[in-house]
Design brief:
8 strands, about 45% helix, aspartyl protease, about 210 residues, EC 3.4.23.36, protease, two-stranded antiparallel sheet, transmembrane, aspartic-type endopeptidase activity, alpha+beta
Length: about 210
């Protein structure tokens, strides 16, 4: 259990520290190169949905996502207790702890950031879409923020546009189009979930020597 707590704490600490720094020092849409590298940038965007900017269904979709994350976290706590009693290996415990921490990290943003910051991305009911309002955010007394409980957005900032190229007009199919890889912007919590998932896949036989059993 100590291992799970330590991994979760460290990932949450880095995740929340990076998000708070970006939100209180950058305007939404602001982007700067890291170490002077054009392919490694800090780009501030806010995401009302899932990892890597995926979202759906306006506020209903957002509420469903929060409920899903809560169910995931609750289910993982149950599994941790079971696996620890059974003496599960680190090939299972460590990646699952990373996924657990990532889910909590993004849940914190969605549930509480609208209550503690004075500006952010909100859902415009009339337009039927998410809109970015305000500049660099500041902390405000709890409950006096730009939105209400469960209506905050996830802060993303890690951007790796390894390829950013506009194809010449004469190219078949892609002529005149902008080709960007990797265009998605994400955060430390997303990274923890992704890395944990990859580790589970790569070491699945060691993680689940007797098959997956709930």
């Amino acid at each position: 259990m100590k291992k799970i707590v330590l991994i979760t704490f460290l990932i949450l600490l880095i995740d929340q520290a990076s998000k708070i720094y970006i939100k209180t020092h950058f305007q939404i849409g602001e982007s700067i190169p890291v170490f002077g590298l054009d392919w490694f940038r800090m780009t501030f965007v806010e995401n009302p949905g899932m990892a890597y900017g995926v979202h759906f269904g306006g506020m209903i979709g957002k509420y469903l996502l929060v409920i899903l994350r809560l169910c995931l976290i609750g289910g993982m706590i149950h599994l941790f207790r079971k696996w620890l009693k059974e003496g599960a290996s680190n090939y299972l415990i460590i990646p699952m702890a990373m996924i657990f921490a990532g889910a909590i990290g993004n849940l914190i943003d969605g549930m509480f950031y609208g209550l503690i910051f004075d500006s952010g991305t909100v859902y415009d009911e009339e337009l039927g879409r998410w809109m970015d309002y305000g500049g660099v955010s500041r902390f405000v007394p709890f409950g006096e923020g730009y939105s209400s409980f469960m209506k905050g957005c996830v802060v993303d900032m890690c951007h790796f546009p390894l390829v950013d190229w506009v194809a010449p007009d004469g190219f078949p199919i892609i002529g005149g189009k902008r080709i960007e890889f990797f265009k998605y912007i994400f955060n430390i919590a997303d990274s923890a979930i992704t890395v944990g998932g990859v580790f589970l896949f790569l070491f699945r036989k060691k993680a689940f020597p007797n098959g997956f059993d709930l």
